[in-house]
């Protein structure tokens, strides 16, 4: 597998165990991580409590357990909250550099802005334009717990995150399914992943992180990692 290393102020490519799996597909994914929950009394993942995924959040998986990593994520979250315009201008700089980095290496750039957050980036503008309008040649993709997102740009792909922790949240699952969104489900172990779930076929979501290449009307099957291995809220599925 070819290795790449891009480090921006807000995004990074090459240092994430999952996103590098897509390197040999011709895409290079950069990802942005921020503290997702209750930073400066703000919640950058608004459905986290309702979905019951606080304890199993990927914010604690892998390198996320390191204090230095958590401090870096908190720094970015605080910047986003305190100085939205300055943050977005820096993000534009990072994306400009990353796109050039990929072009030079004959790679197709891909970005996950919500590595551990669930921000409606399609509503945030920089000089009257969204990030997606400013970078039409970059493919953006994310997981989301917000089933009612509307007017999603053509270069932004969303996969809905399943949880059975709360009957109210389960209604969001129904909405996501009705809207044709693929649904990511975290199963207890890799061995326990069924061939179908919720009446839809499962695909292995751990083979690659490039969700925008997944067949539509699918369950993206993942297995628990980090603190999620001990989750009993309903976020992690036992079948």
Largest sheet: 9 strands, mixed
Shape: globular
Percent helix, as a range, is: 10-25%
- Written as H for each helix and E for each strand, in order along the chain, the element string is EEEHHHEEEHEEHEEEEE
Q: If you compute it from the alpha carbons, what radius of gyration comes out, rounded to the nearest whole angstrom?
A: 17 Å
Total helical elements: 5
Beta content comes to 15-25%
Average pLDDT for all residues? 87
- Count of all domains: 1
C-alpha end-to-end distance: 34 Å
Low-confidence stretches: 59-66
SSE inventory with pairings:
Layout: E1 6-7, E2 12-13, E3 27-31, H1 48-51, H2 67-82, H3 84-104, E4 108-112, E5 125-126, E6 129-130, H4 131-134, E7 139-144, E8 156-161, H5 167-178, E9 183-187, E10 196-197, E11 200-204, E12 219-223, E13 236-237
Parallel strand pairs: 3-4, 4-7, 7-8, 8-9, 9-12, 9-13, 11-12
Antiparallel strand pairs: 1-2, 5-6, 10-11
Helix pairs in contact: 2-3
Question: Overview of this structure, please?
Answer:
This protein is α/β, with parallel strands linked by helices and 239 residues long. It has one domain. Helix content is 24%, strand content 21%. The protein has five helices and 13 strands. Strands 3, 4, 7, 8, 9, 10, 11, 12 and 13 form a nine-stranded mixed beta sheet that branches. A hairpin with a 2-residue loop joins β5 and β6.
Can you tag this structure with a few keywords?
9-stranded mixed beta sheet, two-stranded antiparallel sheet, alpha/beta, 13 strands, single chain, 239 residues
């Amino acid at each position: 597998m070819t290795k790449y290393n891009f480090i921006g102020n807000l995004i990074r490519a090459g240092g994430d165990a999952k996103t590098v799996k897509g390197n040999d597909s011709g895409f290079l994914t950069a990802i942005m991580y921020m503290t997702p929950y209750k930073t400066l009394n703000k919640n950058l993942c608004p459905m986290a409590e309702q979905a019951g995924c606080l304890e199993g959040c990927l914010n604690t998986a892998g390198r996320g357990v390191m204090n230095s990593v958590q401090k870096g994520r908190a720094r970015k979250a605080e910047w986003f909250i305190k100085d939205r315009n300055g943050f977005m201008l820096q993000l534009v700089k990072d994306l400009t550099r990353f796109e050039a980095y990929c072009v030079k290496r004959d790679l197709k750039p891909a970005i996950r802005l919500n590595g551990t957050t669930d921000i409606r980036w399609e509503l945030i503008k920089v000089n009257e334009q969204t990030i997606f309008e400013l970078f039409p040649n970059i493919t953006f993709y994310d997981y989301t717990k917000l089933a009612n997102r509307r007017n999603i740009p053509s270069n932004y792909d969303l996969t809905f995150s399943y949880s059975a922790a709360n009957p109210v949240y389960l209604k969001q699952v129904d909405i996501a399914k009705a809207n044709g969104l693929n649904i990511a489900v975290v199963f207890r172990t890799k061995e326990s992943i069924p061939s179908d779930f919720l009446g839809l076929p499962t695909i292995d979501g751990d083979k690659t992180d490039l969700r925008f290449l997944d067949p539509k009307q699918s369950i993206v099957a993942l297995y628990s990692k980090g603190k999620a291995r001990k989750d009993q809220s309903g976020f992690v599925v036992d079948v």
